[in-house]
């Protein structure tokens, strides 16, 4: 099953970057589940559809490791505001691939029934909801996104503790559109 996930991830990535028209952007973000800090590039291949690829970092035992992130976003409303562009609601799905030589999702916090409560996997997926605003003159954009991992959805369903910090992550991004 993990090989299938990697094949799907790679296929989506290749097909997304082979698109022909649209706007490119570079992105730097404080990304939550996508990494403590992440940087990458995005591409809007239509007015409503866009993708983003970034490399982020995550800490384990005071050492940082890398992960690659791929996001597909849908923006139904693109609202001009005095010449600028506001996308009030963006819905997306994402894939995260840890590149840490087997050091990913190793143990679960003490409150769970046993140390390997979550399965060890390098590939995770999730959903996001966000908003972005791009300034017309400078082409600098700001975005805010709330993200939930697949195992976060499972934990929210299975656990009576509904503390959002264990299931939800948020991130801010700064982008420049070409």
Give an overview of the whole structure:
- By secondary structure, the protein is mainly β.
- 14% of the residues lie in helices and 51% in strands.
- The chain contains 2 helices and 9 strands.
- The protein has helices at 2-17, 150-158; strands spanning 23-30, 38-44, 49-60, 63-74, 79-81, 84-99, 123-134, 140-149, 168-177.
- The protein has an 8-stranded antiparallel barrel.
- A hairpin with a 4-residue loop joins β2 (38-44) and β3.
Summarize the structure.
It is globular and about 55 Å long. The protein contains 2 helices and 9 strands, in the order H-E-E-E-E-E-E-E-E-H-E.
Number of helices: 2
Structural class: mainly beta
> In percent terms, what proportion of residues is strand?
over 45%
The number of E-state strands comes to 9
CA gyration radius, whole angstroms: 17 Å
Q: Numbering strands along the chain, what is their spatial order in the largest sheet?
A: 1-2-3-4-6-7-8-9
Main sheet: strands, sense, barrel? 8 strands, antiparallel, barrel
Mean pLDDT: 81
Distance between the termini: 38 Å
Order of helix and strand elements from N to C terminus: HEEEEEEEEHE
Overall 3D form: globular
Runs in which pLDDT lies below 50 for 5 or more consecutive residues are none
Oligomer: single chain
Give the fraction of residues assigned to helices: 10-25%
